[in-house]
Structures are given as C-alpha cells and as structure tokens.
Amino acid sequence: MVDTRVQLSGLTLDNPVIPASGTFGYGYEFAELYDINLLGSFSFKGTTREARYGNPLPRIAECPAGMINSVGLQNPGIDAVISQELPRMRKVFHKPVIANISGFSIDEYVECCAKIDQEECVGLIEVNVSCPNVHNGGMSFGVSPESAALVTREVRKVTRKPIYIKLSPNVTDIVSIAVACEKAGADGISLINTLLGMRIDLRTRRPVIANKMGGFSGRAIFPVAVRMVYQVAEAVSIPIMGMGGVSSARDVVEMMLAGATAVQVGAANLVNPYACRDIIEDLPRVMESLGIHSLKEIIGGAHR
Amino acid sequence: MNIREFYTITENRPVARDVFKMRLAGNTAAFSRPGQFLNIALDGLFLRRPISVADYDEKGVWIYYKVVGEGTRRMSAMIPGETLDVLTGLGNGFDVTKSGVHPLVVGGGVGAPPLYRLTRELCGAGKAPHVILGFNTASDLFLVADFQAMGIPVTVATADGSAGVRGFVTDALRENELPYDYVYTCGPEPMLHALYDATNVSGQYSFEARMGCGFGACMGCSCKTKYGYKRICRDGPVLEKEEIVW
C-alpha cells in the first residue's frame, strides 16, 4: 500500500491533486460526473467583491498543446458566493475547500478575505495577485515584491486561515516576489498562473481573443512551471502548490520532486472532465512503478 | 454519470459542398433531448470540437459538419473503424412541449441538423411542423430529403435563387403565409436575429459559440441574457426568445 497523503499548512489532504481555480467552477458540474470527494481539495472560481461578467467573447483560443483564455474573472461576487454558491457546494463536497480571492485594490482583497474567513468550509485562502485578464487588477499586485508583500501583509491581518499567494510567471524574477510574500506572512505560495499569450486569425488578421491577449495554459507550459516551482522551492521554506500544464500522475510526481507539496490541475479538466479522478486513480500505480512508498517523502526531492 | 465515450466511425462521407455526414456507434445514454451536442477530441488538437447531433438511437449518433478549419479538416479524412473520444449529451436541447400544434422549424446551413430529431419528435407528439431550410446555393443543400421523408411541408430558400425560393429564410416565410404558433431555429446568428424580428410568436433559438470545455466549467462562452449570464454550452445552446439579448 502506498501513502498519497500530504500535509498542507495543517490540512491533511488524502492526495495532493487539486483542480485549479477557474477550471472547476464551484464543483457542481463535476459532481454530476464523479464523486469529487476523492480530490485532495479544489480551488473555487476566482472571486471578487462585486459581481463581474468578465470579458467579451471570444474568450478562448486553441494553441499547440494548450489554450488561451481571457474570461476576465467572471463571478457572482463574494456575497453571492457565500450566500448561494458555498451552501450548494457543501452538498457535493465535504472536505475543506480552497477559496480563490482576486481584487482590484488592497481594500477589496482585505474585504473579501475577511468575509471568507468566516466560512467554515474554507480550509485555505489562495490570494490571486496574478490574473492576466483584467486591467489594473490582480496581476499588477503580483509584478513587484513590494506590492505582493503589501497584499500579503494586509490580508494576513484579517484571517487566521492559511494564506497562499498565487503568483504570475509574467515577471522578471518570481523568486524575489515569493520571498517577499513569505517575509510578509504568507503560509504558502501557489504557482504558476497562466502565461500571457496571443493568437492571430490569419483570415481576419485580427487577434482571435476579443480582449486581444489572454492566459496561456495546458501541457505546453509544464516545463516552465516545473522550473519556476524548483526555483521558488530553493528560496522559500513555506509549502508550494505547484501548477501549470499538469495532466498526468507522472506530472504530479515531477512537480512534487521540483518542490510542490500539493499539485493543481487546470486546463486538463476542460479537455477531460475526469482528468483529476483519472490522475488520482493512476497515482498509486505510478508510485509503485517508481518505488515511492509515501508521496510526502519526494517533496523537493530533485534539490538533493 | 459517464459522459465520456469512445465512438467508432461507421460512415463518413460528403453530402454537399464541404459538408460531411458522419455516423458514430457507441453508448448514447447521456442524450435526452433534440438539439444537444457532442464534443470531439482530435489527435494533436488541444480543445475538443463541439458538433450538434442530428439524431441518435441506442446504437449511436449521426452528425453533419462543415469543413471550416483544422479540426473539421482532420475529421473529413477519417475512415470507418477509427474511434473518437467524445463527450456526449451536452447542452440543454429543445423542449418539444413548448410549441402549439403548428411549430415553425427554421434551419440555416449546418444549423439544420439538430432540427432533424426535433422535427421527428414534434411529429411524434402529434404536431404539424412546417420546415424552412436556408442555404447559400443549390450545391450546399443537404438533409432536405430526410425532412421531406417525414411527410411534412419543407420549404427551401437559397440566397442566389439556384434552388427553392430566392432569398433568405425570412423571405420564404413572407411568401408562404404560414400559420404557425411557435418557432424553433438553429443557424447563423444574423439569421436568428432576422427571424426574431420577423416573427411575433415565442420560440427557442439555438446559438453557436467558441467554447472551451463544452460542459459549463470554464465560462469561455458566457453570454448576457435578460435573466442573467448563461453559458451557451451548458445553459444553452437553446435560449428562449424572451431571454435573448442581441
């Protein structure tokens, strides 16, 4: 028997596999397809203070081994999430969930985190300072160590739940930003968000995405994600949730060897709605084939 | 519930200019209504390709697709015996109980296929549908004989007048002075909009969108309606006339 459990800031996860924010809604669509309680946890749709429709269509573009999305944080707003989505979610998911919080100002991050702090079903808060799809929002806080640290310090004051800062790869030095978040009181780091990308339609000679550019995700970005997780793991001592192009149990092992304690799966859910279930079912077999008895033991293994 | 199936191609042939008919054998338990679609994975392409279903039975489905890009070009080269990874039973589909005795069924180009099963079910429910099918030109015509085989009136319109009524489906509608109490339609958005303006009865309109997942997870195809935001893939593709915002 292999042991797939991992410890994440006081939470014991049955396995490290976590659907990434924005690819899993609040879980209901997937709960119709399989028992989502077999997941380690999941990170729900990025939530802001006000309801947002998001960006104009088209929001999606195909890429080799990946996709670009420019949804633009469509969500019903924090109050509706708490009053409507979470009660519905709790009927289908009985483990601590990860709340993904976005914002356009420090005040907005603080208000949303203070409200979600009151929700018992939330085990951990993932603060997104890296959405590439909204102007003046999200990513502008994630592009410098100073502003990322400022968000971290301010949300730290309003919640006792573990705070993970979700970082953007679209920066000069992700390591310095991760270190600044750790010093400011973050309990962990989530990385990477999507890479800013663009496709152009050869017939219309215009960008495919209405908002022109968007976040590139999918298998193609996996090596970039592994590299960044490895670099950040060298520099911080807090846990990392690694993500970016993960689509198999072998990818999960690789991401953990790079330094991730838990591993998020994003775009793969959109192509195969059973992707996370399949990865979790595959994990024990892959572990056995690699001589891994306990997943905990391999975290950061590539650094030795 | 399982919606991911592996279908075997049993037929794949051209039926009109750039339009192919494909029959697929496999489990269809996830389909419950006319107007639903499937989402097809193709080797080497990341996103699936959503294609509406013309009809299904317990053994398989029957689709039409127009070659418009890389995905459909690859599909057109596939041969019987090959298998496809598909997500099945997607979308809300049409509700045949909504219409009166005289539903008007209007299809434009490759918007016609999902109306085939719809029309079959309307006939099965004892209703008397009138079908109008619009195409650009005579060489684009397909499915017309299949609709006619149901023994119902079928009016064809072509933009260049090479077959049937010269003009758009709305021209065919004006010329025919039909009695109708409800509209079911699927086709290009300008056609849907023209029909919306040209008719004063309620109806169900099936929309197209560039989708990410096709099952409601990614918000890639959200549209504004009078009653809030809806995902074309999951809350649609069929919208009620009363909720549409153009």
Q: Low-confidence parts of chain B, pLDDT < 50 over ≥5 residues?
A: none
Largest sheet of chain A: 7 strands, parallel
Number of domains of chain A: 1
Question: End-to-end span of chain A in angstroms?
Answer: 26 Å
* Most residues in contact, chain pair and counts: A-B, 33 and 27 residues
Just name the CATH architecture of chain A: Alpha-Beta Barrel
Q: What are the secondary-structure elements of chain A, in order, as H or E?
A: EEEHEEHEHEHHEHEEEEEHEHEHH
How many E-type strands of chain A? 15
In quaternary terms, these chains amount to: heterodimer
Overall structural domain count of chain B: 2
Mind explaining what this structure looks like?
The complex is a heterodimer of chains A (304) and B (246). With 304 residues, chain A is of the alpha/beta class. Helices cover 33% and strands 18% of the residues of chain A. Chain A has one domain: TIM Barrel (Alpha-Beta Barrel). Chain B folds into 2 domains: 4-90, Translation factors (Elongation Factor Tu (Ef-tu), domain 3), CATH 2.40.30; 96-206, 3-Layer(aba) Sandwich (Rossmann fold). Chain B has a 7-stranded mixed sheet, with helices on both faces. In chain B, α5 links the parallel β11 (182-186) and β12 (203-206). The model of chain B has no long low-confidence stretch (mean pLDDT 96).
Main attributes?
heterodimer; A: 304 residues; alpha/beta; TIM Barrel; seven-stranded parallel sheet; four-stranded antiparallel sheet; B: Elongation Factor Tu (Ef-tu), domain 3; Rossmann fold; seven-stranded mixed sheet; six-stranded antiparallel β-barrel; 17% helix; 36% strand
